[in-house]
Fold each of these.
Amino acid sequence: MKTGIDRISFYSSRYYLDLKTLAEARGTDPAKYYTGIGQEKMAIPPPDEDIVTMAASAALPIIEAEGRDNIELLALGTESGIDQSKAAGLFVHGLLGLPARCRVVEMKEACYGGTAGLQMALAMVQRNPGSKALVIGADIARYDLGSPGEATQGCGAVAMLITANPRIMTVEPEAGIFSDDIMDFWRPNYRSQALVDGKYSTRVYLNALADTWGQYTTITGRGYGDIDRFCYHLPFTRIAEKAQERLAKSAGIKPDDETLEQVLRRSLVYNRITGNSYAASLYVGLNSLLDNDDGDLGGKRVGMYSYGSGCVAEYFSGIIEPGYREQLFTGRHRDMLDDRTELTFRQYEDMFTLNFPTDGGEHTFAQYRTGPFRLAGVEQHKRIYKRAE
Ligand code: HMG
């Protein structure tokens, strides 16, 4: 029985900082960001947006189109958790009005959390083909102001409906898997910004790719030429080009610009203007590919590389279903991205440095531009979510 992605929907903040503005403020050549790391804009969440509002906003179009019946799992992958105990997905479950007969869990392993949720969902649907799962990746990438990681911030969420006989992508069962206890990127509980050994992290990302790709090709007997499109975890888009060159080199190929354009670059379009969204990022890439590739991808195989620092990596693949385009929310995604508000550097720093109230009092948050849901305030340490007006 085929299982996989039946619907996929992406949401990101309505605010962004152009990396030219960041470059000017930091005295850096903008080409370092635009070309060197391959990023143009980073999405910045306003004070009344968090992973719950982004996750619910990503999932709502799917619920409106498909209803709530038989959704027996909501797995939310994130490393921007809002509570040490309660799963953030429970707030999403409430906002979306999902059935009580639904397992709700939070998956954490840095950027791998979304893939962990996907694998759990596929296993559940295999066992009970009448059931469906909502898998969401949602994150806010934050590094210290002025640090090398600053230009690789961003935020966003991707929601996927996982079913039997999916209409967008059947996920193939084989995978290369790799874990190692390392410190390339981490965020202790007492910090709201991640710490990172940047250069080391990129080396480990590429080494884990080589390992998982090697396993994948051995298990499947497939090679570089059997993959039609490539999607990677995207901390910044330039790393995907490096990854692609590595895989091609292992097959004795040097891809030219035209080939990279065809097999890779449509998956980078959204990330380039929204930035890293950690657990969502690989799936932002997949959604970008589906929305922006002009060719008919029906029947094509997509290679998927998931990487979460710390680290866990996985290489797997899927086959795009004929007629997939009818299931996409392409127009909605484009409208959202075209209708964002650019921040000044001062506004960016003000949003960044705003402290979340921790005194247990009653606080109401000013209304910014958000999706259908917003974080209205906090009372007695409880977050209050509302429909945006
Ligand atoms: P850096 O040290 O400031 O940058 O930080 P750099 O000096 O290495 O320059 C970057 C690139 O720009 C270089 O290209 C330069 O040559 C080029 P490369 O040598 O790499 O090909 N460059 C220029 N190009 C054109 N014109 C110019 C110019 N100047 C320089 N004028 C770093 C870069 C990525 C390390 C930093 O941004 C960082 O620490 N980022 C955060 C960590 C990260 O994203 N790691 C990626 C792998 S780990 C991962 O993906 C997991 C993660 O998503 C977390 C999770 O799992 O949860 C992060």
Amino acid sequence: MRLSGRGMLVTGGGGGLGRAMAEGFAREGAAVAVTDVNLDAARAVARGVEERGGRALALLMDVTSEEQVERGVADAARSLGRLDVAVSNAGVQHIAPITEFALSDWRRVLSIHLDGGFLLTRAAMRHWQAAGKGGLLLYMGSVHSVEASPLKSAYVAAKHGLLGLARAAAKEGAKIGVRTNVICPGFVRTPLVDKQIPEQAKTLGISEEEVVKRVMLGGTVDGEFTTLEDIAQLAIDLAAFPSAALTGQLMVASHGWHMH
Ligand code: NAD
């Protein structure tokens, strides 16, 4: 057990990668606050962790709500007894060419990724400053933090932006013992990805199979998807890393799609 006695908070923990990280942290002995805009989904994940003998609680947290993020961080720290790691994971995708991209969709994508990342960063840093102890912020970036793809302008801009936020927080946080790192996965089969396969096929005028083979996995060295378990393992490794030698960094886990 590499994370025994630690307190963790994950946003967007009700599904996909957030769920995999929350369950991975719990398997390694951490107590986990599973937060999501979908409280039922967060509750189901927390219940599953507890049924397997782990410690978890579910909290409602829309990452675009200043009030819910601040209350969620405070409630998590109080209920878990401590907060060591906060993971900014909640995210959405929107597929459209720039010429047809509605401003409302652009704002929604940027708000969930960037406002959400900022609000969690500020709330966690304020908590750690007041508690007189440091902590770790992990951000769910993407290969799209360092590469662009067509039809994803808002997502690519948001994921590049998260790198800037993580680097700024690493510099400001150092004096209070706060570290930050960004996890950048390639494509992982989650609802976020499954939804965009038919959307991309329609917009690009190719088959769904071609979207998977060419668009999603064409840049990898072996044509393989990254898995939920790969990303959970990387999050555990970063959470367990003992020093500030690793701060302000990005880790690309993508079967070689973009070698950083
Ligand atoms: P997902 O759709 O499976 O899960 C996203 C979760 O976020 C859901 O539980 C959803 O309810 C929650 N959520 C949505 N809006 C929210 C909000 N406003 N506040 C709080 N929670 C909210 O998606 P996923 O694939 O697990 O994606 C998780 C993160 O990983 C995202 O930031 C995504 O950009 C990133 N990512 C995913 C992939 C991939 O291939 N799946 C690759 C790279 C990065």
